[in-house]
Amino acid sequence: MIVCYHREILKPWTDIELQERLSFLPDNIQKPILLKRNHLDVQLSVSGNLLLLELIKHFGLDLKLSNLIYGEHKRPYFNNDFDFNISHSGNRVICCATKEGKVGIDIELMQPVSINYDDYFTPTEQANIRAAQNPEAEFFRYWTKKEALLKAVGTGMFTPLLDIDVSEDEVQYRNGIYYLSPIDIDEDYLGCIAHTFRQDILIKELIL
Question: Which CATH number belongs to the domain containing residue 145 in this structure?
Fold first, then answer.
């Protein structure tokens, strides 16, 4: 099963609240977070790691954030069968984890965008977006599918989005099959989970 925990940041934390939450994280996780200039980004990053701790507890694993390993493209992972991924947008953050295969997650706050579709979407994807009843929502639907897939692969935005076509919800890429499952956490957000095994998905909002 894929389990996803998410939360919404409703207000700025006080210094005391921030320090209380940081106390659950090791120094090697705290330091890069505290270099962020935007306070909301700090809150989202801290919350993402706290959600990960809750998922580790959910799966009954003895894992510590200080033992995280980082791949060639800076994707964090543990050296075992447990895989996870974190995404945040707007004032929401989500962390998904599984003990079966790989998982990637992307959520996006829907808002007006102005980009050249030719740079990011294949001709088939462009046609589907433009033909949709709500092209703006369809744009984010395709964007989150691509991001989630590449995060599951482990390359993220180091791979050009044009290199993959997510017109279908089952994509073969680099000799692997990835399943793309849309998720709904808020009416203003669109999201997608990419995973390498067909399995149930549990989504739950937490208050941290």
Answer: 3.90.470.20
